[in-house]
């Protein structure tokens, strides 16, 4: 089961980083290259505990829908979204936030399982894990940019 862990330092208050990270509109801006949009559930604004969102995006040349739900939430320390329906066999994305002086340490733990057994594991090794890590890095860059531009 692949796990991607990323740490991003953001020069902004932890509360701001937390809210920007759960903002549907910011998420859409961070995935513009996939044509991603929210089509059901919470489709804009700040998503919260128990809420879900269904995304439609093009990945690997195929339009796909994925529904995730916020299953854990403790402002401003962490929240978790988990796949309810989609192309993965499962995924759990933990978003952790820690204040560090005037900055925030944002840590993502993305734990997923691809479908198709051995073929899925081969796809993970060959390209899926790299693709997902790249998506998260781009997303975190947008979050960082949004949080820090308010300081300027």
CATH architecture descriptor: 2-Layer Sandwich
Number of helices: 3
Cα Rg: 15 Å
Order of helices and strands: EHHEEEEEEH
What structural class do you assign from the helix and strand content?
Answer: alpha+beta
Poorly predicted tracts of residues: none
Q: Provide mean pLDDT, rounded.
A: 94
Strand order of the largest sheet: 1-7-6-5-4-3-2
Q: How many domains, as an integer?
A: 1
Percent of sequence in beta strands: 35-45%
The 3D shape can be described as globular
Can you count the beta strands? 7
Sheet with the most strands, sense and barrel status: 7 strands, antiparallel
What does this structure look like?
The chain contains three helices and seven strands, in the order E-H-H-E-E-E-E-E-E-H. It is α+β, with helices and mostly antiparallel strands. The chain has one domain: START domain (Alpha-D-Glucose-1,6-Bisphosphate, Chain A, domain 4), CATH 3.30.530.20. Strands 1-7-6-5-4-3-2 form a seven-stranded antiparallel β-sheet, covered by helices on one side. The longest helix has 33 residues. The termini are far apart. It holds the Pfam family Polyketide_cyc. It comes from Mucilaginibacter achroorhodeus.
Question: Mind sketching the topology for me?
Answer:
Blueprint: E1 3-10, H1 14-21, H2 24-30, E2 37-41, E3 52-59, E4 62-74, E5 78-85, E6 90-100, E7 103-113, H3 117-149
Antiparallel strand pairs: 1-7, 2-3, 3-4, 4-5, 5-6, 6-7
Helix pairs in contact: 1-3, 2-3
